[in-house]
Amino acid sequence: MASKELAAPCDLPEEVRAKNHQNTGAEGSPAPLPDFGYEYLDHTADIQLHSWGPNLSIAFEQCCVAMFGYITELEYVVPTFTQEITTEGDDLLSLLFHLLDEFLFLFSADPFFIPREVKITHLDIKNFKVTAIGRGETFDISKHPQGAEVKAITYSNMQVINSEDGKKWDCYVIVDI
Q: Ranges for the Archease domain (predicted)?
């Protein structure tokens, strides 16, 4: 498949913009969501990332991947090296904010790192500390189709929610594009 340069978020291929959206099941009922994943929700002038997983680590990992999936098509990213980040916050929201912000900084500055995968290696929700490893490569405009520029992470309507049964975590983050 030939790569193409993408000018605006609306030019992202449907399969990228609608990553892991619900499929229609039997008789038009929505099929259940996979155990983990992410999707993009429309928001006035910005985009909302929604990620989920059976535990908080996976939901955070998916949120990071969702952010980079909006920047470029991750299928073109070859994991050639890793970058580790450690950050902390005052609560779960600020912890997620700082995690995304640190990864966005690695993308915005040398080495212009674009991870295809993110793995949380340590998550301390008592002291609000996280260590994560991204596997990816240096962003190359000739190789990686450009989606939307993520300018900043925002706290606007940010949510980290654990289901009543404790079996699912959801993260909602609006990013400034």
A: 38-177
User: In the structure encoding, which two tokens stand for residue 109, read together?
Assistant: 């500055």
Amino acid (1-letter code) at residue 161? I
Both tokens assigned to 16: 């990228």
Question: pLDDT of 20-35, one tens digit each?
Answer: 433 333 455 566 668 9
Token reading at 4:
């193409």
Closest CA to 60 of 174, 134, 169, 158: 169
**Count of alpha carbons within 13 Å of 26, Cβ hemisphere only?**
0
Q: How far is CA 1 from the centre of its chain?
A: 24
In one-letter notation, the amino acid at residue 79 is P
- State both tokens at 119: 């793995």
Q: 95: which residues sit within 8 A by CB, 6+ positions away? A: 87, 88, 89, 125, 128, 129, 130
Q: Calculate the alpha carbon distances from 107 to 15, 123, 126, 139 in Å.
A: 23, 22, 29, 8
pLDDT in tens, 101-138: 999 999 999 889 999 999 999 999 999 999 999 999 99
How far apart CA 132 and CA 5 sit, in angstroms, is 30
Which whole-number Å values give the CA distances from 21 to 69, 97, 116, 127, 148, in the listed order?
Answer: 14, 24, 19, 33, 19
